[in-house]
Design the sequence.
């Protein structure tokens, strides 16, 4: 190989290493920011109250420990697990549900389906 070809290869390698370093720093910073947000959310009071009804979009479904299908959604970033949902309910549907209890640590809550919004 001639010197210009070797120099070009080294240059490309340096550019790739620099790009990797920038990506790694950004990824690390994003993880730290996410961890700080998570910790802050763990310390805040829940934005919902037991006995109150809230409107939110269904983001996912989960199986309850009893085997029942449960709708998952969020109110101000706070997760609600909603029981007694209709079989035809789909992700993206907006529902109203009444909060019945908090989980240990008050980081999420259980709710009962009331109606579609």
Sequence:
């Amino acid at each position: 190989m001639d010197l210009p070809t070797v120099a070009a290869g080294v240059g490309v390698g340096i550019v790739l290493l620099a790009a990797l370093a920038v990506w790694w720093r950004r990824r690390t910073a994003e993880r730290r920011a996410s961890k700080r947000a998570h910790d802050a959310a763990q310390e805040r009071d829940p934005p919902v109250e037991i006995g109150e009804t809230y409107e939110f979009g269904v983001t996912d479904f989960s199986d309850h420990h009893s085997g029942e299908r449960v709708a998952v959604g969020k109110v101000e970033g706070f997760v609600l697990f909603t029981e007694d949902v209709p079989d035809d309910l789909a992700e993206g549907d907006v529902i109203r549900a009444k909060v019945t209890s908090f989980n240990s640590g008050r980081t999420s809550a259980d709710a009962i389906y009331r109606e579609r919004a």
The chain has two domains: 1-43, 53-116. Residues 53-116 form a domain with the OB fold (Dihydrolipoamide Acetyltransferase, E2P) fold (CATH 2.40.50.140).
